[in-house]
Every structure is written in C-alpha cells, then in structure tokens.
User: Which sequence fits this backbone?
C-alpha cells in the first residue's frame, strides 16, 4: 500500500455527519432528501473497506456524497416526477432550522444553491457548506484549485444575486 494511505475508520464517520448533512441539503434543496442522501452515502461507504490518503476523510465523504447525489438525479430523471408536500417543523424540534424565521432564510439560501449549475453548486457545497479547503475541494471534485476558486466566485455571485432579487420582491 502507498505511504500515507490508510483504511477509512468507520468509528470516526459520525464526526462528519453535520457537515455532510449541510452539504447534502445544499445539493438537494430540502431537508428530507438531504437526510436520505447522507444515509445512502454512509451505507455505500460502509458496505466495503475504503482507503483514503492521509487525513482526507471529509474530502472522501464529500466526493462519495456527490457521487450518490449524481446517481440519484440520474435515476430520478428516468422516473415520472412526483410533487411532495412541504412538511412543517415538528413540534419540539429544537434545531435552528425549525424556527420559522430562520427556516425561511435557510430554505431560501439552500434553494438558491440548489438552483445553481452543477459545477458551481458542487464547488460551493464543498467549500462553503462542508468546510473543505480549496485544495481539499479540488481533490474531492477532481479538478484544479484555481478552477475551484473561479467556480466559487461565480457561485457566490449568483447566490447573492438570487437572494437580493428575492429580497427585493418580498
């Protein structure tokens, strides 16, 4: 085995669930699909031994999450579309997203991110939502760091434009 390559520690995967959930929410645009995507990602990763370089667990998991998301979208494109009802926050739900005023802001933000073109959305999710460095995001998305920088700039500009347009109409 190469130097610096180690087996992914299944016991430490829970350390990344919050960041993966936020990344999934930004990709999917809603909480329920995000929860399902994170579960699917963990099921895939835990199905067989995985190997990572150095301490790049989060980068590997973000790449696995993205791959699971792309697979789901491809499968969904082949099926008839169903319209889901919006679920309200559950009583006693103490997550910040359950507060109505906060939930609207978060939904608008993640909705704007979900509406971005794939390349911009993936870069934004990897860096701003999952918290990867530019170098880690470049490795996870298999591109150059300079490409991540330009995609992030464009993605952030588009999200700001979408949110300012929504604010102007409110």
Assistant:
């Amino acid at each position: 085995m190469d130097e610096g390559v180690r087996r992914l520690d299944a016991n430490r995967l829970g350390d990344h669930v919050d960041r993966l959930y936020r990344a999934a929410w930004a990709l999917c645009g809603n909480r329920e699909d995000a929860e399902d995507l994170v579960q699917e990602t963990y099921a895939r990763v835990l199905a067989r031994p995985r190997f990572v370089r150095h301490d790049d667990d989060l980068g590997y998991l973000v790449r696995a999450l993205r791959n699971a998301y792309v697979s789901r979208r491809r499968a969904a494109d082949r099926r008839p579309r169903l319209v889901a009802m919006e679920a309200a926050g559950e009583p006693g739900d103490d997550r910040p997203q359950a507060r109505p005023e906060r939930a609207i802001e978060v939904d608008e933000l993640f909705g704007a991110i979900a509406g971005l073109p794939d390349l911009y959305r993936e870069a934004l999710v990897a860096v701003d939502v999952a918290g990867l460095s530019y170098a880690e995001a470049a490795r996870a998305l298999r591109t150059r760091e300079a490409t991540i920088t330009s995609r992030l700039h464009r993605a952030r500009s588009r999200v700001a434009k979408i949110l300012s347009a929504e604010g102007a109409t409110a």
Remarks:
- The chain is about 65% helix and 5% strand.
- The chain has a mean pLDDT of 83.
- The longest helix spans residues 145-169.
